[in-house]
Amino acid sequence: MNSESRSAALSNVSLEMRAWNIRRKALLMGEVQGQGYIGQALGVADVLAASYFHALEYRPEDPEWEGRDRFLLSIGHYAIALYAVLMEAGILPENELETYGMDDSRMPMSGMASYTPGMEITGGSLGHGLGIAVGMAMGLKRKNNPAFVFNLMSDGELGEGSTWEAVMSGVQHRLDNLICLVDFNDQQADGKSTAALAQGDELAKWRAFGWHAQRVDGNDLRAVVAAFDEARGTDHPGPRVIIFDTRMCKGVDFLETREITHFVRVESDEWAKALAKLEEGKPQ
Amino acid sequence: MTLASMARKYEPRRIPEQKVATTAMIASLAAEGYDTVNAPFGHALVEAARKDDRIVGLSADLAKYTDLHIFAQAMPDRFYQMGMAEQLLMSAAAGLAREGFNPFATTYAVFASRRAYDFIAMAIAEENLPVKICCALPGLTTGYGPSHQATEDLAIFRGLPNMTIIDPCDADDIIGMVPQIAAHDGPVYSRLPRGKVPSVLTRHKPDYKFELGKAQVIREGRDVLIISTGFMSMRALDAAERLAADNVDAAVLHVPTIKPFDAATILAEAGRGGRLVVTAENHTIVGGLGEAVASTLLTNGIAPTFRMIGLPGQFLEAGALPTLHEMYGLTVDKVSERIKGWL
């Protein structure tokens, strides 16, 4: 670990607190627009906290530092969650929070590389991230740059054929600097992901392709951290994947128990209620 | 819809007097009377890569059929075999470009323009990354039928912002083009004549040099102005010689760069007045060179007598390439006959 680049991680703020802050910022942005992919943001907050405050090397003041680990947001509509963690990490200034989704904002509703510091790629057309990550991992190896490429994708993207082209390629080119993160909340636009395409045993599938594969509870921070350590530290000669089972709307119980859909409806009076609910669960 | 109405079942049209092998006509676009250069793209890329160590080559199981094998053999550590996976080919090229490399990605034009389009659009063009996509079998250069005939690729990519589009005529164009697109800091789609590629333009105009973004008059003429691209510039030049024998004086304006479009030269030449203006392209007449010229002329208030030569807006037949070129009007005979008919 490069201690200079990990100053944010070295602070004594707990990962639980980081995850809570990410959820809070995401809710505040959702309130600004009266909408947003808040269910996904609440669900993936623990994974993002562990990414930016445990696993990744970066310099907040220099988002394009050549030595940084690359973090690709393949799921562009999770942008609200990434903006929250980029603010928490000091890459985006917090005072831009209230510009979320507005004209001239650096934080559009779907993530785009040309708009936002720290946003490596333009996601949103699904099934793109892992292929780009393969190319970047090949490029880093050409440069003898020891950085890792992390690609955060959704379970829905497991249905895209391009994902599996990249899965095979990562093994073919022995990309042991590539770590794929799958947010498995089992929700896509029309319902359950597992009810849309027969997925079989995801863990066994990735292993059969030659990946180092783990599947953990994505809302259990200790398990998430351990999985990141294992993925980074293993001597497996190829790429690594961590499948995180997460719960949509995690941390706001009345939303968690609502009939969960891909795009969670939150009434205008409910944002304050959701923030209050989150406040009740604030880590000590 | 009945099965019968969906099927395209043909009665044998004719028993050919002389058998023409379809497969033999795929490798290169031979034309009588021209010298050929072997695999000009591959050799030009090796030369460019010696001067620019950021250049890497990628192919989706078609290195041998896009002349990239020359590069792969000369610089094996700079070549990536991406497998039969065109979406990945484009995504990975984008990733390499993000890390500072200058990737040349090759496949067939049908696969780049149809199968991999979203990946070219979002991962490469939207980010304005310097990925050079070079594609063999453009337009009607194979008898394999619509699965391999990229008759609408120029139309598809013309609609894509940031994309530079090139339809080279011959080996001279390719040899000139490779270092120029290597130096271009943005995405490029180039059609790619491959194999034994004729050298055409320098025979008609010895000092010809490809210039990215420029249309160039190859031959002067008072009666007709043929505005052409790709190998149809070769057909146009040969047709002009044929027409000269009938006292028709035809000029040929070669437009290898389809985008950005050299409107100034087009306007200057077509605006001289008095000449029939004919466009000629190895592409459907929908959305290609012809329509680009037409909109350029009309929006600038120039309206000469105007005709288009190109492929029809339909899925083409399979067969021997010379037969198909005759059928769809891309031969020297057909081009010169049609022009005479329009005069």
From TrEMBL, chain A:
Pfam families per record: Transketolase_N
Family annotation (Gene3D superfamilies): 3.40.50.970
Membrane-spanning ranges: none
Cofactor: thiamine diphosphate
Keyword ATP-binding tagged: no
Keyword Transmembrane helix among record annotations: no
The entry's keywords: Thiamine pyrophosphate
Residues of the Transketolase N-terminal domain: 32-272
SUPFAM superfamilies: Thiamin diphosphate-binding fold (THDP-binding)
Family stated for the protein in its record: Belongs to the transketolase family.
Name used for this protein in its record: Transketolase
Record organism: Paracoccus niistensis
From TrEMBL, chain B:
Superkingdom field: Bacteria
Coiled-coil features, chain-numbered ranges: none
Domain Transketolase-like pyrimidine-binding: 35-199
Gene3D superfamilies: 3.40.50.920, 3.40.50.970
Protein name: Transketolase family protein
Organism: Paracoccus niistensis
